[in-house]
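Q: Hand in one record:
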Amino acid sequence: MAVEAGDVGTLGDARWRVLWPAASVRTPGNAAGVALAVTGEGIPSTLLLADLDAEAQVRLRASADLGAFDVVKVAHHGSADQDPALYERTQPRVALVSVGAGNDYGHPRASILAVLRRLGALIARTDTDGAVVVWRDGGALRIWRGGVGPPD
């Protein structure tokens, strides 16, 4: 099923909205990844950035009505191909980096981790933290890390 910006749906108490790709994007590959905003009763506001490259991130930032999110899943495993202004706009409280341990690509890159730290985001990485779960407990965000590595 093809989706495009503006599509919406629900899953239980969660509401999701497709932010990207725009209808005009027909390029295969990372630029056509599906970016979702997810909200709902007891669910932290979450932005899932797929593997979007910096160019797609810039276009998303220009085309979508974006505000702050509790949780942002960092695009493309934290590669160097990022738009720091997108993260500045979304002000993540928690930044999730889904990345394999010992990968040959050097992900996540120090440059995006520095941006996230400067913004005050708590960074959770699957390569050092294992499985990560984030949930809302009243007004607070809680995080569980399944790995044995130190928090970032």
Remarks:
- The chain has one domain: 8-145.
